[in-house]
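Here comes just one.
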Amino acid sequence: MKVKMITLGCKVNQYESEAMLEALLQGGFQEAGPQEEADVVVVNSCTVTATSDQKVRQTLRRAKRENPGAVAVLTGCMPQAFPEEAAALLDADIVLGNARRADLLPRVLEYLSSKQRVVDIAPHENGEKFEKLAVSAFHGRTRAFLKIEDGCDRFCSYCIIPYARGRVRSKSLEDLRAEVDQLGAAGYQEVVLTGINLPAYGKDIGLHLCDAVEAACEAPGIQRVRLGSLEPEQLTPPVIARMARQEKLCPQFHLSLQSGCDETLRRMNRHYTTGEYRQIVRDLRRAFPGCAITTDIMVGFAGETQEEFEASLAFAQEMAFAKVHVFAYSRRPGTRAYTMADQVENRVKEERSRRMIAVTKATQQAFLQAQVGQVEEVLFEQQKARGLWEGYTPNYTHVLLPSGEDLGGRVFPVRLVEVQGESVVATLVTDT
């Protein structure tokens, strides 16, 4: 029987989808090709915004339409956070949360035998351990994701994720080392360490994120180690100094900002000020020359005045981010911000989004332009078009290189010659 995995959301979800797919393949299923109908379709969901939930519903309907007669499975964060709403989505034959992914294969086999709809969403429990998942290959990818942490204890006032993911729990160093070694032996040159609250890695087992970084960098087959999204206040000077000693660590840091206004940050229950954030960015740029600082910025949070937005806009410009994901605040039932006064109108959110995007696009262009003329090592991933390859520098600059050779999964030195949109066109550096 053929199975198709559809992943919505973050890199953690991508890792978990690969783990679930691997379990199904080991259970006797085969992966369906891109244009091939599947007998089982698994939708691994995201629920970070209301738009995410809408996309889940649309994806389920499309999956049923494109794979008539297939068993449709809905799993992931959306059913975990909103079990009643997920159970009501009748396009899903099987509805599972994300607390026990090992149940996927037996539940699929159960449905195939009985044809009885399954809704089983196990709650997260205090004290639960890190779920042992392992991925030996990432289909169609040259970079490997490695989930090392799950859950979040921060409870930002706008965020539903602690309810969808539970409390912080961490992969053991023994398991981490074994998986990194396996990925290196499989030919992956870059591994991306991911987690729901990545800097919280180890707090439950007496370790620190630096321990995970050092362990990953020790793997002989891995040439690059990259970090996923980071909460900024946990990057203290000693932590930055310790990370800077790892030559394999990529100089790209996604520091979640959310707002460049202190008053807004307080209502969000974020744990830093703009002054502290500014200093962390300065420390990173000093320790990692030429590094890329990327971020997320929310506009239109509950109570955000025009003055607060202008402060956030000015701060974003000052930080000169390499790339920014701008999004409008989305009210999530069950969060403290849902009932806050002074909710911002959608038209105002849209206008603020447009202005923030314009400013951060300009800082991105300046960052890219500053790299023209430099020679960088690029890990090439795939052909973007015939004879045009795409890949990334260590600081995650997207590079385009015309070449008739197969460059996939290989690292080459290139000279960055011209900014083209959000990419930089390059030429190969060859010995003369």
About this structure: The mean pLDDT is 95. The chain has four domains: 2-120, 127-250, 276-370, 375-428.
